[in-house]
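Researcher: Next entry in the queue.
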Amino acid sequence: MYGTRPQLVKLASVWEHLERTFCSVLVDSGQHYDSRLAGAFYHGEGLRAPDVHLGVRENTPAAQIGKIADALDRLLGKLHPDAVITFGDTSTTAGAAIAASYRGIPTAHIEAGMRSFDRTTPEEKNRVLADHLSTWRFCPTRTAILNLKREGLGAGVIGVGDVMYESFLRNQAILRTPDFPRMIELPEREYYFVTCHRAENIDQTERLKRLCEILAQLDRAVVFAVHPRARKNLIRHRLWARLKRLEHLRLTAPLNHQQTLVLAASARVVLTDSGGLQRESYWLRTPCLTLREQTEWVETVQCGANRLVGLQWDHVREAINRPWHIKTIRDPYFRNRSPVSRIVARLERDLTQ
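Model: Structure for this entry, 353 residues:
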């Protein structure tokens, strides 16, 4: 079960392995469906199109979760699956966990145990809900395992590693291909790569204005991959035209996963509120500034690869100009190269006995 592009990246690492043992039904909630975000992605990652599309569109988080849970509940009543697999921390994650729980169907939560400890964000609520309703809690880090134990969850907690790392490794050949088409004519390490999509940043007018101020004051070329909802809000608040007038700023449509990796690999610094890009920047050894006050990926901060700056220009400027000393993350789960095989082996053991 998935509904956003980050979940598609994780699914791309899992589904082919699953189908060697199980018959899978791919269900797209439609949560963030946009042809620019998802439509071309299936081809890039070798995924087949979803078997079922629930057609739930963007709405308030509570309404979205309710619609997803209702639509999936009716589907589960027809399919009677042995298990439901869901990813990450979105409304789709929460809706899938709720529907499966009420149907008495075991749920596997991939990327379990992540905590930013900011309960004001919808992502944190979704993580906690999914973890407490799931049967298998597949954790990407040692910290995630400890987070669940502190919440009284011990059964079904399995350390496997990060499925996005497996996807990252699969795409390494593209980064090494010298004739990979250049997307921008900018010198390596001489531009900033920016993404921003979280509700707390792009749905709040004042924070969106602060993002624009940061983009305007950066001292080198900027490539900003604009999420459809961010673009909509920028236009609504009359900020889009202002950004288009900035000569050093290049506004692009949403990028597929491979294009994102290519741009992040050559950037001087990545500025993002994406959990996925925080890890990918570390793996690429590109410094990362996270446009939030907290992160669930604390390892990237502790090793010096990632700095939390929120949407404060003074914090951004100071963080960029400080020397970067990126250390290796020693967590053995974080560095595991084959988390998917561990996930599938555990599901096979428990479901085929």
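Model: Residues 5-162+335-351 form a domain with the Rossmann fold fold (CATH 3.40.50.2000).
Researcher: Noted, moving on.
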